[in-house]
Every structure is written in C-alpha cells, then in structure tokens.
Design a protein that fits this description.
Elements: H1 3-30, H2 35-63, H3 66-81, H4 90-104, H5 107-119, H6 126-151, H7 156-172, H8 189-194, H9 196-211, H10 213-225, H11 230-258, H12 260-280, H13 285-293, H14 295-313, H15 319-346, H16 351-372
Helix pairs in contact: 1-2, 1-6, 1-7, 1-10, 2-4, 2-5, 2-15, 3-4, 3-5, 3-7, 5-15, 6-11, 9-14, 9-15, 9-16, 10-15, 10-16, 11-12, 11-13, 11-14, 12-13, 12-14, 12-16, 14-15, 15-16
Length: 378
Amino acid sequence: MPYWRLSGFYLFYFALVGALIPYWSLYLKDLGFSARDIGMLMALVMATKIISPNVWGWVADRTGKRMMIVRLGCLLAAVAFAGVFLGDDYWWLVLVMLVFSFFWNATLPQFEATTFNYLGKESHRYSGIRLWGSVGFIVAVAALGPVLDVQGAAILPIIIMVLFVGMWISSLLVPEQAAQHLSLSHEPLRKVLRRPEVMALLVVCFLLQVSHGPYYTFYTIYLEDHGYSRSVIGQLWALGVLAEVGVFMLMHRWVRRFGLRNLLLASLALTVVRWILIGQFPELSAVMIFAQVLHAASFGIYHAVAIQLIHRNFTGKNQGRGQALYSSLSFGAGGAVGSFASGLGWDTIGPANVYWLAALMSLAAFIVAALWIRPERE
C-alpha cells in the first residue's frame, strides 16, 4: 500500500480546505460583500457537491478509472479557480466558484474509494491515512492567520492557487491500478437505499452538515467581530483539527471497544453542546478553546464512523456512488443549506440564534440515529 502517496493527496487537499473554508469568507468581506452575499457564494461551493460527485461517481463505477477522474478534476479545478485573478464582481465570482467547485468536488469521493480499495479488509486503518489531511489543514490554517494579519486577505487567492497545483501533482503519484474494483457483485443501488438504517444514516449526515453551516461560513468573521485577531482565529481553527487528528489516531481502538453506533451518538450529542457554547459565549476565550476541542467529536468521530458505515453498506460497483452520495447529501446539500440559511439569518435573527438553530439540527440528527441506526450486533 503506497501509504505516503495516498497521505500526500489528503495533505494537499485539506490544506486547500484549510485556506478556503476559514478564510474565503474573510476575503469576500474585504471585497465589500454583505453577509447574505457571502452566505450565497459559500453555499455554491457546497451546492456543486450535490451533483458533481454523483456524475463522476457514475462514470468511475463503470470505467474503474477513478484516479483519471481525480487527476482531471484537480487540473480543471485549478484552471477554473484562476478566474479569480480576472475579476471580483459578484456574478463573475458566482461563475468561477461554480465551475472550480464542480471539478474540485469530484475528486475526494473517488480518492476515498481508491483508499478503501487499497485497505481492503483493513478499513479500520483509514484514519491513519486520513489524519495527514488534518495535518495539512492545521498547517494551512495556523500559518495563514498571521500572514493575513500582515499581508491582508488579498494574498489568499495566490496561496489557494499554489495548493491546487500541489494537489494535482500529488494525484499524479497514485497509480491507476489502485482504483480498480474489488468486486463487481453488488445489490442494486435502489435496494440498498431502501434499507431504513441506510436512509437514516444519510439523513443524519445531511442534518449534521446543515448544523455546520454557520461555523464553516461565518466562524472567522464571528470571532473577528468579537475582538479576536486573525492569528488567534487561525490558532483556534488549528486547535479544532489537532483534536481531530488525535481522534483519527485512536479510532481503530474506539471502534472495536465502543462500536460505530455508540460513537456516532456521542459525536452528535457533543456537537449540540459545541454550537450552544459558540453561540452563547464568544467573548470567553476559554470556552471557545473548549468548543474547538469538541471538533474532535463533531467532525473527527462523526466522519470516521460515517465513512466506514458508507463503505460497509455500498459495496462492489456501488462503492463510488456510495461515497458520492455521502459527499453530495452531507457536505453538498447539507453544507449548502447550512451556509445559505446562516447567511439569511446572520443579520436578521443574529449569530446567537443561528447557532441555536444549528444545535437543534444536531439534536434532530441524534434522534434519527438513536431510533433507526442499529448496533452492529443486530
């Protein structure tokens, strides 16, 4: 298994996420866009995940050429993102963000399927590879905070462009052979989707990502409005993902000890607590530090559990489409709804109430999981 080549792609991919998600809204704010406009533009990046992973997943499951799709997606995303250097009016950025995110969002689900094909029956080792994505995120988000304090947000597109190129180069190092199917025997996709536990899992993933909308879209602006410097904000983002790395290092033990369902329920309950703390106590730095440590649960535990459940339920030729559905319904539809709704509510009902609504979404996800996702022994 080419551990470092697989890890290298995750490193660059999530370093790019660490530059884009925490700071792109800040760049848009510096361009003079309103909270509503920022929410809409950030929602576009998520919205393309509804369509893009499914289109490319369908192609990948029929051709077996997953890495070809990953490489092409990385290259075309970089070319499309270069459009930000040609203009900065609203509708031009709408076009640029739609096009680059359509190709960018095609890459990760197919790379995830490639990684699991390499792992075979040792899927519990996934976290040990994926943690390098968290390392990339930490390095990017922690380093960029001080840079943006000194240079301003105008330098951000250049940094993102460099990371796009790095991601494309890293994709060239993973051989296409890794992307071939383990087996072509599989249940019809419709039959898999009719299972109550599968439907419940997808609903949980959607609701949880809706709840992350105000965090991914406005957390940096929110803290800056409460007097935090961009350097400190970057450190808080990095702390959250550092806690996530700790989880990825321990998940293979926790899964065997506690089971996937119990870990999922714990992560959803702690996510409710996290959004309440961020919404109610932004002026208390100690509380904000604790809330960021809870990222270990709201993303780290949740993602490690969800992606293993997806892998177990979507097998054979459904593998790519399973990963695509997970990406499109959670990070795509859920992320888009969360970003758009938080943009609408930010200046009307206020940030605190937006985070209360986020907590309610997480609570709803907990209830669905508790009622319909069965323990493994059943």
